[in-house]
Structure formats: structure tokens, C-alpha cells
Design goal:
The protein has 248 residues and is an alpha+beta fold. It is built from five helices and 13 strands. The protein has an eight-stranded antiparallel β-sheet with strand order 2-1-6-7-8-9-12-13, sandwiched between helices. The two termini are 43 Å apart.
């Protein structure tokens, strides 16, 4: 009896040591569409000229990106973003994990000589002036319980989180806030336009003094940005509530 117990302990220790050794010596992996995982000490994404892109594992094994569903490197955990998955940008990096897991990728915009307006996880943002300068922004996605990645938006979250009342309440707050922000942008833009028109109507006697209406409109336009800085984003709040709500 003691001999069998000793052998069982020895076997368990050997398996644990083997798994631990694999985790230490091969901490990274790619997971194929078939579910198979291939571990490696080093994983690189190669984009040679006039040749197909590929993942290079330990400077020897090559895998076509379209065969890969997930991969883990020193930079983090990444998931396939679309059906093709042939480029590095076709994979999004995981930011938070849970029943709802969030991911992000970077997109580069080239601005013209005009103010830009962008939509991100926190809502609507107003950019500055520029001409031909590239700016990077994060674009967010989410996956529900290891499902496919979807754009992180009010519409998609409303479907995914519909079985959690607390999350739905946060989404309703988000929707109301977006409507208020849109109203502020419209009202502020109208006041700025009225200020400019008033300036032109005043003629030379008005001098170079800018109409107060312009500054009031500018303040109303910037107010949504200030409000968002001091409050928690309701989209993130809805996801947090979903992830931390106990399952009955």
C-alpha cells in the first residue's frame, strides 16, 4: 500500500514538473483554428516583400496567419479579428478578460485641414487641426464567453448584456448621455456660428473684438469632454457589472 502511494506521489510530481518546465521554457503559443496549441520560446510575425505573411516560432516553424485563431507573445494575448486574418492588424490585443472580454487594435487616421471627430470606447471626441499628419487611435472590440469578436458599441452590447439588468441600466445611462452630448454639440455649434455672423454684421466699427456668443458656444461644445473626464464611462461600467455579477 505504501509502495503504491509512493509511486502515485512520484507520478504526480513528475507530471507537475513537466508542465511547469513547459510553462517556463515555452511561455508563448499560437492556437490554430482546429484548437491545437503550439508552444514556443519565441514568436514573431513576419511580413516579407512579395511573399505571404507568416508566424515564425523559435526561428524554425512557420504558420500561415489565416490558420491562427489566438496567439500569446511577450506583448500580450491576441485574437483573430476577421475571417481573413492575414495581417498583423487583423488580430486585436486583449485588454480585460471575463465573461465579456475586451480587445483593442490601433488604427491610423490621416487628418486634413479640419477639426476631427472620433468615436471610441469613451464616446465622441473632438480632435484638433492638422494637415496630413497621422494620428493613432484605439478601436475596441469584445467577445462574449470566447465567441467571435464584435465591435464594442452600444448596439452590440445591448444584445450581449441583455440578461443582466444592472448592465442594461448602465447602457441606458450611456444612451441618454450620448443624446445630451449631441444636443450640446449642436447648440454649441449654433452659438459659435451666431457669434461669427454677429461679428461680420458689426462691420469695421466692431473692431477685432470677437463676439461673446462665439466663446459661449465654444464652452458648450467642450463641456461634454469635461463631463466625461470626471465620470466613469457607462460602456465599461456595463461590462464590469456583467463580469462581476454572480451566476445564479
Amino acid at each position: 500500500m505504501m509502495k503504491k502511494l509512493f509511486l502515485l506521489i512520484l507520478l504526480t510530481w513528475s507530471i507537475t514538473e513537466s508542465v511547469w518546465a513547459q510553462d517556463v521554457s515555452q511561455p508563448y503559443f499560437i492556437e490554430l483554428m482546429t484548437g491545437e496549441r503550439i508552444y514556443a520560446r519565441r514568436i514573431q510575425f513576419k511580413s516579407p516583400l512579395f511573399k505571404q505573411n507568416y508566424f515564425l516560432l523559435d526561428d524554425s516553424l512557420q504558420y500561415a496567419p489565416e490558420r491562427v485563431r489566438y496567439y500569446q507573445t511577450q506583448d500580450g494575448f491576441f485574437a483573430r479579428l476577421n475571417a481573413n486574418g492575414r495581417r498583423h492588424s487583423d488580430f486585436a490585443q486583449r485588454e480585460t478578460s471575463g465573461k465579456i472580454t475586451t480587445y483593442f487594435t490601433y488604427r491610423t487616421d490621416y487628418s486634413g485641414y479640419a477639426p476631427g471627430v472620433g468615436v471610441g470606447m469613451g464616446g465622441i471626441g473632438v480632435g484638433g487641426y492638422g494637415y496630413g499628419y497621422p494620428t493613432q487611435r484605439r478601436v475596441y472590440y469584445f467577445a462574449k464567453e470566447n465567441g467571435p469578436l464584435e465591435p464594442l458599441s452600444y448596439k452590440n452590447l445591448r444584445v450581449a448584456l441583455s440578461d443582466n439588468p444592472g448592465s442594461m441600466e448602465s447602457l441606458q445611462k450611456y444612451k441618454r448621455g450620448q443624446n445630451i452630448q449631441l444636443g450640446m454639440y449642436v447648440a454649441g455649434g449654433g452659438l459659435m456660428l451666431a457669434g461669427i455672423q454677429q461679428q461680420f454684421r458689426s462691420g469695421p466699427e466692431g473692431g477685432n473684438k470677437i463676439s461673446p456668443l462665439f466663446f459661449v458656444g465654444l464652452g458648450v461644445t467642450l463641456l461634454p469632454q469635461v463631463i466625461r473626464l470626471v465620470r466613469k464611462d457607462q460602456l465599461s461600467e456595463a461590462i464590469d457589472l456583467y463580469n462581476y455579477t454572480p451566476v445564479n
